[in-house]
Structure formats: structure tokens, C-alpha cells
Specification:
By secondary structure, the chain is mainly beta. The chain contains 2 helices and 8 strands; from the N terminus they run H-E-H-E-E-E-E-E-E-E. It is elongated, with a radius of gyration of 18 Å. It starts with a helix and ends with a strand.
């Protein structure tokens, strides 16, 4: 619990208005749909995932900003196991063209609150078992923003997410590719 409070304090500190001065927008709120494709060991136990994310961006230089996001992803059942996750990430966003929207790179870190449920049958009886775990997450990716109207931007990006801790009591290494499509609204 202490680590979660420290993480949230860091997010709030770095998103302070004291850091904003430049950029095509100084701050933005966004929402996106997520398509999640499990990789490695995780793909043996989870199907394609779908979810949503909310994003907050605060540009503190001409091309570098701080990005925080919260989201929920659920993966389709595979081999009688279903997964879902609530995530909190924060990190840097770097626009390749200063003071303009367009191509960008981002790297974030945060927490995945991952839970899973196993459903199985034995001798005509059905059983279910579930567990949850808090895991540290590292993510990086590339994206492109298109201005579609005054202070409204279409945001498309792809990223790779690696959850650093194996799932509780298993050897499943958890990682996935994310494909995101959403809209950012420039605040000022």
C-alpha cells in the first residue's frame, strides 16, 4: 500500500502546473480504445484483450512532456483462464518535431493490478479459482497525433508492455503489445 501511495504522489508532483510552459498544447486529456495482443508465455494463457484508457499529458518543454494514464484491459478466455487488469502508468512523451503534433515516442512505468480466474471441470462438477496480484510495469512505444480540429487530436500508437513480476505461483511471464486509438483534447 505504501508503494501505491508513493507512486500516486510522484504522479501528482510531476503533473504540477509549475512544469508547463511550451508545446502545441500545454496540457491535454485523452481517451483511447485498446487492443492488446499477448506475447511470449502470456499468449499461451490469454486471448486477445480489449480495453480503455484515460490519459493526461503535460508538456514541460518544446517537445518533452509528462504523460500519465489509467486504464482497464480484459483478455478473452483461453485454456480455461481469463485475465483482466487495471493499470496506472506515468512517464515521458517526446515529440519528434518541437512545438508540433506528429510522431512521438513515449516510455512509461507503473503498476498493473492483474487478476485471473481459472475455470475447470472434474467428474461432471465445475470449479473456479481466482487470484490477483500487483505488478510493476514498463512500457514504451511510438505514436502519431493528427490535429483534426482546434485543440482536438487523433492519437494512434503502438507499445510493448512488460510486467516485471511473474504471475503469483506460476512461471507465466506477462507481456503484450498494445494498439491504441483515441482522441486527445488540448486544455490550454
Amino acid at each position: 500500500m505504501k508503494s501505491i501511495l508513493l507512486f500516486l504522489t510522484i504522479i501528482l508532483f510531476y503533473n504540477s502546473p509549475l512544469f508547463s510552459q511550451w508545446g502545441n498544447y500545454e496540457s491535454a486529456l485523452g481517451a483511447s480504445a485498446v487492443l492488446s495482443i499477448p506475447t511470449g508465455d502470456f499468449s499461451d494463457y490469454a486471448g486477445t484483450g480489449y480495453g480503455i484508457k484515460a490519459k493526461y499529458i503535460w508538456m514541460f518543454s518544446e517537445n518533452v512532456g509528462w504523460q500519465s494514464e489509467a486504464g482497464y484491459i480484459t483478455w478473452s478466455e483461453k485454456n480455461h483462464i481469463s485475465f483482466n487488469s487495471f493499470l496506472l502508468n506515468t512517464g515521458l512523451k517526446v515529440n519528434f518535431i518541437p512545438d508540433e503534433v506528429g510522431p512521438y515516442f513515449f516510455a512509461t512505468f507503473g503498476m498493473h493490478f492483474l487478476s485471473y480466474e481459472v475455470n475447470y471441470s472434474f467428474m461432471e462438477s465445475s470449479y473456479s479459482s481466482s487470484a490477483s496480484d500487483e505488478n510493476f510495469n514498463i512500457s514504451s512505444g511510438f505514436g502519431y497525433e493528427f490535429e483534426i480540429d482546434d485543440n482536438i487530436y487523433l492519437d494512434l500508437n503502438v507499445n510493448y508492455n512488460y510486467i516485471t513480476k511473474n504471475l503469483e505461483n506460476s512461471d507465466i511471464k506477462t507481456s503484450y503489445f498494445g494498439i491504441n486509438a483515441g482522441v486527445n483534447f488540448g486544455l490550454f
